[in-house]
Amino acid sequence: MLAIRYNARSFSSLKTTMNKSMNPAPAQILDGLAVSAAVLTSVHEAIAAHVRAGGQRPGLAVVLVGEDPASSIYVRAKRKDCERAGIQAGDFDLPFETSQAELLALIDQLNRDDKIQGVLVQLPLPPHIDEVAVTNAISVSKDVDGFHAFNVGRLALRQPGLRPCTSRGIVTLLNYYGIRIKGRHCVVVGASNIVGRPLGLELLYQGATVTTCHRFTEDLAFYVRHAEVLIIAVGKRGVVDADWVADGAVVVDVGINRLESGKLVGDIDFERAAAKAAWISPVPGGVGPMTRATLMQNTAEAAGIDVAEPIMP
Ligand code: NAP
């Protein structure tokens, strides 16, 4: 087993922290809908001021290949967010049969278009297109999803440029409620290229002590029990048992799962986890809207417009 051991002193100090905030009351909600609305307002105000001062309204190219139902819903929502934020959306809906060469040619054209400050290619792409090649073809300065290897590398080296939206959005959400990240033990469950890995880098950048768990982690329960901030991003209902959550922990659920009834739920049993946690994000209405709002924030910043991050009034 991977040898992470907690000595008696560090474990008792963790327990003391937990006990202080041990909650007989259910957890407080990390309200992603409310905080994302505040982020969008902030983006809107910053863009409006920029345009009033004679600046150009930022443009975001939203590229969708094929008609995957979930992707079509996400893209529609992103285009609506553009309207709310005052960003000019350029819609590029391409047929499923689009070749990789044709998609790369479009990206090249968008990279050189000075009316476009952000280029977003909705993933997943059809299987005949190499996602890595496409992601890395987007200009680093227009990579508002933050998935380009160069931007992820910048985050790893503490020189952040455009940062991946889900992980940045989670930090914005925690900051809004004044929840400390620096110095705390954050456990990330899931290590994908688009969520888990960048999240580990983002939390490390924020000064957290980070443990990343994945498919090959032995004794997941051990790490979860020692998490002060637990972030689950697997996409498997029940992958983390709510009984493992430490009293007073902060729980952020990134996972999205659809039950047979059609209801959307996260990776952890919300009710049971909320009985132990101090703070918890719901699904839906937690991380999802934060990811989308952060895309708008990144687009404004790609256009050189600073956006003030909201904090709880
Ligand atoms: P993914 O690419 O399938 O990655 C899942 C990760 O979980 C992988 O790293 C995988 O490990 C790991 N994993 C699988 N089984 C595990 C286990 N038993 N224990 C621990 N780790 C395990 O999914 P993703 O794109 O990261 O998305 C994860 C979830 O978040 C999905 O439900 C997705 O819909 C949701 N999501 C939500 C948002 C949002 O904004 N709310 C954004 C993106 C994704 P390996 O690396 O070893 O395969």
List keywords for this structure.
313 residues, alpha/beta, Rossmann fold, six-stranded parallel beta sheet, three-stranded parallel beta sheet, 11 strands, disordered N terminus, binds NADP nicotinamide-adenine-dinucleotide phosphate
User: How many distinct helices?
Assistant: 11
Output the helix-strand order.
Answer: HEHEHEHEHHHEHEHEEEEHEH
Shape: globular
Computed CA radius of gyration, to the nearest angstrom: 20 Å
Task: Sketch the major β-sheet.
Answer: 6 strands, parallel
Structural class: alpha/beta
| CATH fold title of the domain at 164-288 | Rossmann fold
Strand order of the largest sheet: 1-11-8-7-5-6
Report on the structure:
The protein starts with 7 loop residues before the first helix and ends in an 11-residue tail after the last helix. The protein is α/β, with parallel strands linked by helices. Helix content is about 40%, strand content about 15%. It contains 11 helices and 11 strands. The strands form 3 sheets. Strands 1-11-8-7-5-6 form a 6-stranded parallel sheet. It is globular and about 50 Å long. Among the domains are: about 55-140, Leucine Dehydrogenase, chain A, domain 1 (Rossmann fold); about 165-290, NAD(P)-binding Rossmann-like Domain (Rossmann fold), CATH 3.40.50. Strand 5, helix 8 and strand 6 (about 210-215) form a beta-alpha-beta unit. The protein binds NADP nicotinamide-adenine-dinucleotide phosphate (NAP). NADP nicotinamide-adenine-dinucleotide phosphate (NAP) binds near residues 189, 191, 192, 195 and 288.
